[in-house]
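Handout, page 2. Input:
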Amino acid sequence: MTKEGPAATGAPATLWDRTRQLASQEILETALRLFTEQGYDETTIAQIAREAGVSQRTLFRYFGTKEDLLGGGQERFGQVLTAAVGAQPADADAWEVLRAGIAALLALHDSREQALRRFRLLHNTASLRAGWLEKGLRFQEDLLPLIEPRMGAGNKGAKARAVIATAFACLDAASMAWVADNGRGDIIDLYDECLTAVRT
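Output:
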């Protein structure tokens, strides 16, 4: 689940806000447990709702799609990524600003265990993997106008695309290695290692 709502904006949370947050957290934890126990594709929305003690209609008020039950809408991921990249200093290079964006994405996880369950599902479920790769391409297009101005002389569009694609490939490799090592260490450190290997 992404960290949104009044607490994220600095406004005090109302009782309704806190109740809604607890309910969505319960639904999310139920979904992640069922996905882990029996597989993402084998788990139905009806089953998640029943186990969480809510109606399917209520579940869809909190999470628009089954995929959102992995931790928040993909639109939100894109917003966080582009906002973090766009907020970086003008003199920071493309690699630095992309790292800041990736770090912001990784910070959306509530805990290491939750992140591990999500990435494990993502890398071990063909349908989720395909969807994530497709969304990654859309995220890269969104980042293009933010990265192009930071490129040197020459074809800025081609160079920006190459840098962005490399950053995403390094994130993918880092998260896969992290899952394979059962969540030891930090993904961002693995990302740095992957990027160093590519750039040298």
